[in-house]
């Protein structure tokens, strides 16, 4: 498996060159936050990654089922990354439990519970909005957009609806990589820790071969 990390505005800055020295081959950056705004560190991080030879990079957006899917896709595309450039592993949509923060910056437990109850109660609309977002991204980029999630989320909230034709990035802290709930096969990426080598970044693996990674990342 090929080691990777992912990070967002919630993580402490960490020199990408140092990550590469420690064996990291791929890095994902949060591009669009849960509030729909661009991550304030994305542009600088993306340019830093582009400047490191051989470092693969990907971008993801947090999905909010309560909002229009096509508009969320447009928000992600508006960042203007070269998703078909060499070493770019494409666009990804983060599909997981919603977290609502109060004006004090702390998690609002009541609002968070209400938001996720809305998704459960309106799951067909939520699923349609997700498909709208994914399909719009596909059409605009000419590539299949991937999904980050954990197996129980679509099983619980989307009543087991699968995405067998899409790349999938699964989060699971177990010792072995889980199989996809919808295909029974390995996911493309596996997030296996929230604390990679005592940093506050999540640790991941690409489960395919170097040749498959190059194909995914437009490397000839």
Written description of the protein model:
31% of the residues lie in helices and 20% in strands. It has 220 residues and is of the alpha/beta class. It has a single domain (2-216), classed as Glycosidases (TIM Barrel, Alpha-Beta Barrel). Strands 1-2-3-4-5-6-7-8 form an eight-stranded mixed β-barrel. Strand 1 (2-7), helix 1 and strand 2 form a beta-alpha-beta unit. Helix 3 (69-77) packs parallel to helix 5 (123-141).
Indicate the CATH architecture: Alpha-Beta Barrel
What is the mean predicted local confidence, pLDDT?
93
Tell me the radius of gyration. 17 Å
- Terminal CA distance: 20 Å
- Which structural class should the secondary elements be placed in? alpha/beta
| CATH fold topology | TIM Barrel
Considering the protein shown, what is the CATH homologous superfamily?
Glycosidases
- What is the element string, with H for helices and E for strands? EHEHEHEHHEHEEEH
Helix count from the secondary structure assignment:
7
**Outline:** globular
Q: Quick gist of this model?
A:
The chain contains 7 helices and 8 strands. The protein is α/β, with parallel strands linked by helices and 220 residues long.
Throw out a few tags for this protein.
single chain; TIM Barrel; 31% helix; eight-stranded mixed barrel; alpha/beta; 220 residues
């Amino acid at each position: 498996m090929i080691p990777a990390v992912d990070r967002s505005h919630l993580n402490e800055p960490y020199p990408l060159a140092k990550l590469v020295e420690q064996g990291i081959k791929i890095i994902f950056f949060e591009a669009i936050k849960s509030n729909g705004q661009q991550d304030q560190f994305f542009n600088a991080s993306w340019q830093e990654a582009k400047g490191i030879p051989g470092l693969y990079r990907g971008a993801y957006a947090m999905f909010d089922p309560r909002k229009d899917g096509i508009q969320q896709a447009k928000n992600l595309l508006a960042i203007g990354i070269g998703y078909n450039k060499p070493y770019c592993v494409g666009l990804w949509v983060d599909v997981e439990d919603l977290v609502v923060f109060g004006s004090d910056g702390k998690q609002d437990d009541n609002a968070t519970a209400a938001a996720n109850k809305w998704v459960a109660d309106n799951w067909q609309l939520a699923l349609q909005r997700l498909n709208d977002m994914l399909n719009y991204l596909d059409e605009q980029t000419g590539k299949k957009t991937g999904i980050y999630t954990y197996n129980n989320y679509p099983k619980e909230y989307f009543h087991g609806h699968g995405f067998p034709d899409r790349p999938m990035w699964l989060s699971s802290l177990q010792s072995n990589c889980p199989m996809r709930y919808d295909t029974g096969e390995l996911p493309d990426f596996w997030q296996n820790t929230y604390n990679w080598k005592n940093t506050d970044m999540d640790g991941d693996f690409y489960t395919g071969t170097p040749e498959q990674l190059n194909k995914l990342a437009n490397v000839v």
